[in-house]
Amino acid sequence: MSDARRQLTALVSGADDEFDLAEAALLIAQEEYPTLDVDYYLGRLDALAADAGKRLRPGLMPAEAVARLNHFLFVEQRFRGNNEQYYDARNSYLNEVLDRRTGIPIALSIVYIGVAQRLDLPVYGVSFPGHFLVKYASAPEILIDPFFGKVISTDECADRLTAIYGPSAKLDPRLLVAARPRDILTRMLSNLKQIYVEQHDLLRALACVDRILLLAPDTPRELRDRGILYQRLECFAAALRDFERYLQLAPNDKAADTIRQTLPELQRQAASLQ
């Protein structure tokens, strides 16, 4: 286990979510960038918050506070979504996003949350389908899309759902609840996993699944996916363990029968290597 992994494990090991989201994201990045200085990048967020704080004043109404923070981050600091190279893995690593001022929705949201919470603003992530958002917890709540650098309405959210799921899709208020830090990290790692699978970079994909299971132990889908990765890497005993645990947890999953059919051959392969 790398030092970054050990630190991440210690950081997120508590039962609650009272850990620094940005620090955890940087520890994830440190496995890809071993010389990354986590404290340096946390200091970068501190500096952004200090500069943003000069644009705010006590007693601002929520809409005005959001408008000023948006102007600072998206106009003055020029953070923006990376439309041109959306599936570049660098868009998911917080150090790269801070350096390059561009990324995908969830990574830009982590920047936004990190700056806002350092200013004691009630800003939280929203794990909206297809496109991560943040919200300012006021009455009414204010939804922000850091990828496009703007406030969006619930009507726009409903339109996005329709575009993904069809005209019968309805905006359920539960889709706009605040996401826990570990859920945000899990979604970010899932994005990275998919990128690395499509690039046939199985070891990096495996590292993503390992950390997802660190954050959300015994998640059946992730155990299944890790088993598949282990199988492709010819780590047959490890694949067998993950598949057996997956089947215990989700015996009626739609992929369960397919996985069951692989077990006899996996058992033979694992035994042959002992």
Can you characterise this structure?
By secondary structure, the protein is an alpha+beta fold. The protein folds into two domains: 3-176, Roll (C8orf32 fold), CATH 3.10.620; 218-272, no CATH class. The protein has twelve helices and six strands. The protein has helices spanning 3-12, 21-32, 38-53, 62-76, 94-100, 105-118, 154-165, 181-198, 202-215, 220-232, 236-249, 256-272, and strands at 80-81, 102-103, 123-126, 133-136, 142-145, 150-152. The strands form two sheets. Strands 3-4-5-6 form a four-stranded antiparallel β-sheet. Strand 1 (80-81), helix 5 and strand 2 (102-103) form a beta-alpha-beta unit. The chain is globular. 38% of the residues are buried. The mean pLDDT is 95.
Short key terms for the protein model shown above:
single chain; 4-stranded antiparallel β-sheet; 274 residues
Outline of this structure?
This protein has 274 residues and is an alpha+beta fold. The protein has 12 helices and 6 strands.
Q: Taking strands numbered 1, 2, ... along the chain, how are they ordered across the largest sheet?
A: 3-4-5-6
Which range best describes the helical content: under 10%, 10-25%, 25-40%, 40-55%, 55-70% or over 70%?
55-70%
According to CATH, what is the topology of the largest domain?
C8orf32 fold
Q: Can you count the helices?
A: 12
| CATH class category label of the largest domain | Alpha Beta
Class by helix and strand content?
alpha+beta
Beta strand count: 6
- The CATH architecture of the largest domain can be given as Roll
Tally the structural domains. 2
- β-strand percent reads 5-15%
Distance between the termini: 24 Å
